[in-house]
Write a structure and sequence with these properties.
302 residues, alpha/beta, Nucleotidyltransferase, domain 5, 2 domains, six-stranded mixed β-sheet, 10 helices, 42% helix, globular, binds zinc ion
């Protein structure tokens, strides 16, 4: 299969396909032990939500692919694994009337299925297969036009005049750091604006030199997760005032340098990303998960 990095699609989609190939997309059937809420069940049906299922075999995905304007239809029943699915999908050719000739429509369809899944989980919004396909077509056309036109005719993204947080997702990250062994547990959760929890993740990590760096790593993991989910408006909360000050550019900690620059590039790719300090009392769940991840790592047989 052609290298995903060489496909005519934006870097975000290349990264997503690469993660798909390496089974690194946070679908429900993956990492069940490290994830609380939801279960392994598919967002759209009763099967387990594996990557192969969600993008190719789920009735929802099939509905999206079925109407895709390809010269020959993608028969998703033939797909035996994710690699093959991506390969077959990228070989499809959009019909001439779509006007899509210099980007891989199938990549946009995959991304659109992923966004529809996340909007259902995060915003309780339900899109039809047709609507999901339409969004893929529009995005593919817009991107294609932006590539070929000169800069003046590109659609300008207008900054919102008033920042509207009401539909933003809240993300709380926290870390538990053990000095001496330089190991940390990282945890983060996503909440709706009304405080309802959507999901949590945690993981251990080693070679962490300070508690501040551990907090930074937790925030970076949370942001990468939000970015992979295609979330566009997120308020990131931390109980480390030093970390928030560093991210806001108000102070400089050399240990955090690489982490802060990653955090800034993730936030630049979002419509709205805010960083807020909140007191520890708000992080009971994340603190517990971070400690659990650290303990599980320390006491597992190596
Ligand atoms: Zn399904």
């Amino acid at each position: 299969m052609r290298d995903v990095w060489k496909l005519a699609i934006p870097p975000k989609l290349k990264m997503f396909l690469w993660k798909m190939k390496h089974e690194a997309i946070p679908v429900n059937a993956r990492l069940p032990a490290r994830q609380i809420i939801p279960s392994a069940k598919c967002t759209f049906c009763d099967e387990d939500e594996s990557i192969k299922h969600l993008f190719f075999h789920c009735p929802f995905a099939k509905e999206v692919w079925k109407d895709a304007p390809f010269a020959s239809n993608l028969d998703t029943d033939q797909i035996l694994n994710v690699q093959e699915g991506i390969q077959f999908a990228m070989q499809t050719k959009p019909l001439p009337p779509t006007g899509i000739n210099s980007t891989h429509l199938a990549a946009w369809i995959i991304w659109s299925i992923w966004l529809a899944r996340n909007q259902k989980i995060f915003q309780n919004r339900i899109f039809s297969g047709q609507n999901t396909l339409l969004k893929a077509l529009i995005s593919a056309r817009e991107w294609q036009a932006a590539q070929s036109n000169d800069i003046r005719t590109q659609p300008q993204r207008t900054a919102p005049q008033i920042e509207n947080y009401s539909d933003a997702i809240i993300c709380r990250s926290d870390a538990a750091w053990r000095p001496g062994i330089s190991t940390a547990g990282l945890a983060w959760s996503f909440y709706r604006a009304n405080g309802e929890i959507i999901l949590s993740h945690s993981k251990p990590t080693s070679f962490v030199i300070s508690s501040l760096v551990a907090e930074g790593l937790a925030l970076r993991e949370a942001m990468e997760h939000a970015w992979t989910l295609g979330l566009t408006k997120v308020v990131f909360e931390s109980d480390s005032s030093q970390l928030i000050a560093a991210v806001e550019g108000e102070s400089n900690f050399s240990d955090l340098h690489g982490i802060v620059s990653d955090v800034i590039s993730f936030s630049n790719s979002m419509e709205l990303a805010r960083f807020i300090f909140r007191s520890r009392i708000n992080f009971v769940l994340e603190d517990g998960l971070a400690k659990q991840a650290l303990d599980a790592y320390l006491y597992q047989p190596h």
